[in-house]
Specification:
Blueprint: E1 7-16, E2 22-25, E3 32-35, H1 43-49, E4 57-62, E5 76-80, E6 95-100, E7 103-113, E8 116-120, E9 130-141, H2 144-149
Antiparallel strand pairs: 1-2, 1-3, 1-9, 4-9, 5-8, 6-7, 7-8
Length: 163
């Protein structure tokens, strides 16, 4: 079977930046399983996997706009320390969920300057081209429940009902 929409694909991958630094990898752990065509992967990688089968290997450099998007300066803001729960020791790298006009977004603390806290709502890899080295481990048809929920069900998952 080949990778196409409505298939469950299992991959081993290594993600690197342009300097060759490993940003993430599944090698040495369980393969990543996802439902193809529902937006689980960055678009550039998902397109590169179409038509591949078990055992195929893919090396692809994905530009930022086909990965996590360009860095949007509009998503960087300064908040006052008083806007955070009392007693929280705010540090660079901490992440919070924030309501962005009805849409929930993860924001990262990128600078703490006294009572001024600079937050960035961009994905941490926004603005970066990414290189993926992927080996397709398995491809199978997705079940109706997986298509309905938009994610892979492992054996024993008990939420095959409609919700």
């Amino acid at each position: 079977m080949q990778v196409a929409d409505r298939t469950v694909v299992s991959i081993e991958y290594t993600l690197t930046d342009d300097e060759g630094n490993v940003l993430d990898t599944s090698v040495g752990g369980a393969p990543l399983a996802y439902v193809h065509g529902v937006g689980s992967l960055v678009p550039g990688l998902e397109r590169a996997l179409v038509g591949k089968g078990a055992g195929d290997e893919v090396h692809v450099r994905v530009p930022a706009d086909e990965a996590y998007g360009e860095h949007d300066p509009e998503l960087v803001a300064v908040a006052e320390r008083a806007q955070f729960p009392a007693g929280v020791d705010l540090r660079v790298g901490m992440q919070f969920r924030a309501d962005d006009g009805g849409e929930e977004r993860v924001v990262t603390v990128v600078e703490v300057d006294g009572d001024q806290i600079r937050l960035d709502g961009n994905h941490p890899l926004a603005g970066l081209p990414l290189t993926f080295d992927v080996r397709v481990v398995d491809v199978r048809a997705a079940t109706e429940a997986e298509l309905h929920h938009g994610h892979v069900h492992e054996p024993g998952d008990d939420h095959d009902h409609d919700d």
